[in-house]
Design a protein that fits this description.
It is a single chain. The chain contains 4 helices and 14 strands. It is α/β, with parallel strands linked by helices. The protein has a single domain, classed as Glutaconate Coenzyme A-transferase. β11 and β12 form a beta hairpin. The longest helix has 9 residues. It starts with a helix and ends with a strand.
């Protein structure tokens, strides 16, 4: 059974290490903060100037003045701080963010990512994505494996304008966990009940399958 958005976020939460600084992009990545174990010391950063984000607020306890880069209301943890965009991007460009999790419209088998623009469609702007992919050492993409038309989003070469080149390390989709290697997408895990054959059919880029592929532990 393919994962939903929360399932993807829950699986990526397992990649977050103790003592790290993490930036969560707009969309699925913002859900990750909801699934971090209480025993982990993790600092979530948002490029609009927040360090110390917590999970999403429960209904009717939202504060409209406390938002993330996607303009969603958030909570903050004890010790959280607020600052201007100049300082926020100094943190990013200074490589003080250990892990960045982004959504994407396309990821190529060599680690290229396209996530900011579809030609001839209005966009709000590229945000901080280009700075993030150029600065973070570890970049994980959270995305659906195929688009609404059923076409693969894990492809040989991106057709959309690029956000970053050869920067993605790992992709977690509703079907699988994949690692970017010099030879293509290496299948690491499959979603519960999803067959390797289903993943092959949904992946346009070169897919490497070695040995028995374990199910995700969700």
């Amino acid at each position: 059974m393919a994962l939903d958005k929360n399932g993807i976020a829950k699986r990526i939460a397992q990649e977050v290490k103790n003592g790290t600084y993490v930036n969560l992009g707009i969309g699925i990545p913002t859900l990750i903060a909801n699934y971090i174990p209480d025993n982990l010391d993790v600092e979530f950063q948002s490029e609009n100037g927040v360090l110390g984000m917590g999970p999403f607020p429960i209904e009717r306890e939202e504060d409209a003045d406390i938002i993330n880069a996607g303009k969603q209301t958030i909570t903050t943890l004890p010790g959280a701080s607020f600052f201007d965009s100049a300082m926020s991007f100094s943190m990013i460009r200074g490589q003080h963010v250990d892990l960045t999790v982004l959504g994407a419209m396309e990821v190529a088998e060599n680690g290229d990512i396209a996530n900011w623009k579809i030609p001839n469609k209005m966009v709000k702007g590229m945000g901080g994505a280009m700075d993030l992919v150029a600065s973070a050492e570890n970049i994980i993409v959270a995305m659906m494996h195929t688009n609404k038309a059923g076409k693969s989003k894990l492809i040989k070469k991106c057709s959309l304008p690029l956000t970053g080149i050869g920067c993605v390390k790992k992709v977690v989709t509703n079907l699988a966990v994949l690692e970017i290697t010099p030879k293509g997408f290496r299948l690491l895990e499959r979603a519960p009940g999803v067959s390797v054959e289903t993943i092959k059919e949904a992946t346009e880029g070169h897919l490497i399958v070695k040995g028995e592929i374990k199910e995700m532990n969700i």
